[in-house]
UniProtKB/TrEMBL annotation:
<dbReference type="Pfam" id="PF10948">
    <property type="entry name" value="DUF2635"/>
</dbReference>
<protein>
    <recommendedName>
        <fullName>DUF2635 domain-containing protein</fullName>
    </recommendedName>
</protein>
<feature type="region of interest" description="Disordered">
    <location>
        <begin position="45"/>
        <end position="64"/>
    </location>
</feature>
<feature type="compositionally biased region" description="Basic and acidic residues">
    <location>
        <begin position="46"/>
        <end position="64"/>
    </location>
</feature>
<dbReference type="InterPro" id="IPR024400">
    <property type="entry name" value="DUF2635"/>
</dbReference>
Length: 64
């Protein structure tokens, strides 16, 4: 993760679409751009910031 990305995890019971990838953020989380869209979802309580695990990176293909 760098200054331009944030690792997000959906809050339990929430399904949050990822418009860039055309799917939903997995329960294990994903790195996403630090943009107004994602920051708004965090502030709304749909997502929370987290720390990526090795398993999450393998499942989503994220390397950062």
């Amino acid at each position: 993760m760098n200054q331009r990305t944030v690792f997000v995890v959906p809050v339990e019971g929430r399904i949050v679409p990822d418009p860039e990838r055309g799917d939903d953020i997995p329960a294990s989380g994903r790195n996403v751009p630090r943009s107004a869209y994602w920051l708004r979802a965090i502030n709304a309580g749909d997502l929370k910031e987290g720390k990526p695990t090795k398993d999450a990176a393998k499942k989503t293909g994220d390397t950062q």
